Give the backbone structure.
Amino acid sequence: MDEGSVPKARRYDIDWLRIILFGLLIPFHVAIGVYWSTYGTEVNPNIDEIAAEDRREFAEESNDYTAESVDFTSMILHWMHQWRLAALFMISGMGTAFAFKRRTWQIFLNERMKRLLVPMFFGAWTMGFAGSVILGAEEMTVGGLTSSFLFGIVWRSLIFWIPIFGKLVALGHLWFLWNLFQYSLILTPVFHIVRKSPDGSLARFLRSSFTIPKGIGAFVLMPLLLTMTEVFFKPFFPGYIGVAYEWFWFLLFFAFGYVCITAKEEYYRFMEDNRWLITFLTALWTIAFLWIRLEQHDSGIPYVDGGWLENGIIHNRMTLLACVIHSFHAWFWCLTLFSWGAYLLNRPSERLAYLNQGVYPFYIVHMPLTFAGLRVASEVGLRDYAAVFVATAFVVLTCWIFFEAVRRTSITKFLFGIK
C-alpha cells in the first residue's frame, strides 16, 4: 500500500475535542495554583488570607491532588482530572490511527521524533528555565541566569528519562510528550501489522471491541482492562505525571483511541446507537466517583490516588472497588465526550485549522505564564474565582501573543511542533 493511496478522512469532532481539552489545561493549572497551592505559597493569591503561623501547615496539606480537599471547587478539579488526560491520550491514539494509514513505520517514527521530542526538549530547556525564574529560584544576575540556563540544558537532557524524578524535575508538564513518544514506539509493530493487513486477524480482533453483543466489549471489557492496571500497580505508588499505574493506564487509553479509529464504522455506529445509554451510565459512575472520593477523605486512605501500601494495605474490598470506580468513571466520561462530540462537533470551521496549530505552542509555554498570571492576580489583590478568571485570561492572552510570534517562521514552527 503506497503512502498516498489511502484517502484522508478528516474527523472534525476529534480536532475540536483536542482543542477543547487542551484548552481546559489552562484554567485547571491556574485553579490548582490557587486552591491547592501546587506551585508553592509564593505565587498563590489566596495565601495572604492565611495567618503566618498556619502557612507551613497550609503548604504541606495543600499539595498536588491532595486527599484533604473536598470542597466544591476541589471536587470539580478532582473530577476533571480523572478523564481530561485520559481523553487526550485517546485522541492521540486516534490521530495515530489516521496518520499511520498514510505512512510507513519509518516515516511515522521520524515524524514522531520531530513532533514530540523536539518540542519536548526545547520546551524543557526554555520554559523550564523561565518557570524557575518566575518562581524566584534563580540568581537574578546576568552571569547567574546564563550559567543556570546553559547548565539546565545539560542536566535536563541527561535525566529526563529517569522515572518520576526525571519527569518531575526535568520535564515538568511536558511529560505528556515523552509518554506519547514511548507509547508510539512501543505500539508501532501493532500499527504496522494492521496497516499491512487491514482485514487480517489482528485488525478484525480490534474491530470486534465494538461488535460484541450487548456492548460488552466497550461497556465491560475495555474498562476492565483499565481496572486491572490499577489492581496490579496502584497499591505501590500514587499515580502522578504519568508514572506508576498511570503509565500503563494512559498506554491503554492511547491504544483504545487507536482501536476506535481502526474500527471506525463499527465504533461510530456503536456511539450513535448508545449515546443516551452512555450518558446515563456516566452519570451513575460520576456519583460513584464522588462517593469514593469522600471515602478517601474520611478514611485517609488514598483510594483514588493510589499508594495505599503506606497504610499497610495491598488490597481489600474498598481498594478493589476504588479501582473499578476510578477506571469505569474515566472511561465512560471519555465515551460521553466522544459520542456527543461526534454528534455536535463533526463539522468544519475556518477557525479550526488555526486553533489546531495553536495547541502545542499554548501547551508548551502556558506553565511559566501560569506562574506569572498567579503573580499578577496576587499583585492586584484578587482571590478565589476572581484570581482564577484574571490569571486564566492573562495566560490565554500571552499564550496567543506567543503563538502569533512563533507561527511566522519555519524554525520556530519546527521547535514548537507546529505543522
In short: Residues 12-415 form one domain. The two ends are 25 Å apart (CA to CA).
